[in-house]
Amino acid sequence: MPKPTPDPRGYWAATLRLTVGLLLVWFLASYGAGILFRDWLDQFAIGGAPLGFWFAQQGAIYVFVALIFIYCWAMARIERKYGIEA
Amino acid sequence: MDAQAWTYAWVFSTFALYIGIAIWSRAASTDDFYVAGHHVHPTINGMATAADWMSAASFLSMAGLIAFLGYGGSVYLMGWTGGYVLLALLLAPFLREFGKFTVPDFVGDRYYSDVARVVAVIAALFVSFTYIAGQMKGVGVAFSGFLGIPFEWGIVIGMVIVLFYAVLGGMKGITYTQVAQYCVLIFAYTVPAVFISLIITGNPIPQLGFIANVAGEDVSMLDKLNQVLTDLGFLEYTSSRMSMIDIFAITGALMFGTAGLPHVIIRFFTVPSAKAARLSAGWALVFIAILYTTAPAVGAFARLNFIAEVDGATYVAGADYAAEAAAIEAAGGRPIPQWFKSWEATGLLGFEDQNGDGRIQIRGPEAPDGLKDEVVPLNRDIFVLANPEIAQLPGWVIGLVVAGGLAAALSTAAGLLMVISSAVSHDLGRRTFFTDMTDTTELLIARFAAAGAVLAAGLLGIYSAQLGFVAQVVAFAFGLAAASLFPVIFLGIFWKRMNKEGAIAAMLTGLVTTFGYIYYFKFAGGTPDQWLWGVSPEGIGFVFMGLSLAIGIAVALVTKAPPQEVQDLVEDIRIPGTRRPHGLAEGGMAPLPSH
Questions:
Q1: Which domain range does residue B417 map to?
Q2: Which among B345, B363, B390 is the end of a domain?
Q3: Inter-chain contact B85–A57, Cβ cutoff 8 Å?
Q4: Confidence band (pLDDT; 50, 70, 90) for B394?
Q5: Last residue of some domain: B436, B468, B500?
Q6: Which domain holds residue A20?
Q7: Do B574 and A12 touch (CB under 8 A)?
Q8: Is B512 part of any domain?
Q9: N or C: which end of chain B has fewer CB within 10 A?
Q10: Domain assignment of residue A28, yes or no
Q11: Per the structure, how many domains does chain B have?
Q12: Angle in degrees, CA B341, B342, B343, rounded to 5
């Protein structure tokens, strides 16, 4: 594959879109599931734990870990696409 | 060998290991000393960051805190992990691309102002000193509680060890010692957790035991815990007395505070590139999550187990535990477990027989039978410290927990020392007052500054224990980092128009409002009904972070745009691999290249 011409503007716009998207998930998993919608989610259960409570004490942390690795992977793609040498 | 001999063996051998690593990884230049030469592998840095981050409080106190707060404890779990997402996405890769040594380096250069640099130094020093006092105190407690060494001497021993590897190796020595310390602390934390999970739920993985049924019963562990607690007059475990807005604000203050803590941020300067910084944040969170997802399980198990073994048991008053216990059993009673007796001696745990029946009652504030709680005092750290004995594990595990607690305290203290010493030798010395200083001179001053910082931290640890204010001031560290440092770093990267005037206004707003609010409610007699929007001092940093951002943006908009060179610098740090020097924006120090 030929190396694309570096496009810093496109790269930064794509980075911002990705960042906003991932932060939305970050917000929903912690402040959302663990705090704001906790009572509603508690009608469901994961194993023996109410779901909202579980998100606040376990689930949110797993989502955080996943988000950072997804970010690393997606940023590598964006860098390739816009010809940025990381 | 008994538990104390094992404790000595563990503590001695781990300390020897740390010193060995320090000798092996001496620093030869300021680059080595401040940022470990930018050569640290992302996974290794992740592990070092995890040790740096997890303090004596995470290791000893968090599980016990959650055991008592129940759902309310979630603020610590989400707050102290969610900040890493912010670090990875918003700060770490860009600050690495910026390519210097410290947080004030960034603030001073990006805002082309020594005033901004000095304000950032003040914020960094305040946050770090607040934090380090607690670590030194933790070291003193571990030594005095387990090895029979006086509290002050415990701190002195801790100081000598940290002094040795911080002064000799700087960030390079600290990085590799922290890796060893992470291994010690995570092993020490998870081994007892696995056993207690097996005992309570029959599942060896605490995270799964947390959502499983109680061993041999058809009821989930959490339902049973809720039932047991409400029967005794406590609030349900899965509920909290804190208001939703307060939970929201505290979680926010801890998350943004974590992202703004200088000793965490500088760890990401040690990796080779922006890409490595992202990956490293991911690894750091993996290593942190191992402890942070175990802690709520340990908290719940320990609470359940503690009540099951202690409530209703007959107290053994005499010195001959075995004989008395046998007599109580023969009479059809249930004696208190032996670990209760052995921990009573440390003063962390006690029994006050309120109703004179010779048995221990654990009761909450709304006890249906009107009885009073008789386990007084009850230090929450007991839930981690006594775990190995509660689970009847051998003596070597008990000693390991002590070594783990010391590893957690020392690794965090070392990271904070780097911030303090570099703030003096680098930010104030070379970047502000003596800009023509040579690298050799700076390295020498950095070593002296590190030694001075160790002494100051030790004295603070000894002194603050007498004042008993450490727990009160932790709110300061996170609140101030969130309200003063996070906004200017974030805007410095994501908003090119942000200027010197806006940055100084934002930092001062965050510092003054947060400091004033916490001081008023913690030390000047403010009462909870006066809280702004029902937000406690622990969570106020989040509210004032919003104010700091708003004022910073407003001031920037009515003042002059930053010089072109600074705007070019911002362009560069956004795009990996494009960093070039930019004259005015560099403040007389060229950026270090990526590798």
A1: 3-227+235-288+395-468
A2: B390
A3: no
A4: confident
A5: B468
A6: 8-81
A7: yes
A8: no
A9: C
A10: yes
A11: 2
A12: 95
A11-61 per-position pLDDT tens digit: 999 999 999 999 999 999 988 888 888 888 778 888 878 888 898 899 999
- B475: in domain: no
| B19 at interface of A, judged by CB pairs closer than 8 A | no
ipTM of the shown complex = 0.93
DSSP B560-591: PPPPHHHHHHHHHHHSTT-----GGGGTT-PP
In a domain, A71, yes or no: yes
CA–CA min distance A82, chain B (Å):
11
Domain count, chain A: 1
Asked if residue B355 belongs to a domain, the reply is: yes
Q: Which of A16, A72, A73, A75 to mutate to test the interface with B (most CBs of B within 10 A)?
A: A72
Q: From B76, which residue of chain A is nearest by alpha-carbon distance?
A: A57
- Report in angstroms the alpha-carbon separations of B283 from A61, B72, B276, B338: 13, 27, 10, 41
**Residue A33 included in any domain:** yes
Whether B218 and chain A come into contact, CB under 8 Å, resolves to no
Residues of B with CB below 8 A from A69's CB? 282
**Residue B236 touches chain A, beta carbons under 8 Å:** no
* Burial group, residue B230, by CB count within 10 angstroms (0-12, 13-18, 19+): middle
Q: Residue A2, preceding bond cis, omega within 30 degrees?
A: no
Residues B455 and B311 in one domain: no
User: Could you tell me if residue B532 is inside a domain?
Assistant: no
Q: Are residues B96 and B243 in the same domain?
A: yes
B258 Cβ under 8 Å from any chain A Cβ: no
Q: Among residues B571, B544, B566, which one has the least CA distance to residue B556?
A: B566
Chain A residue with minimal CA distance to B279?
Answer: A72
B491-504 mean pLDDT:
92
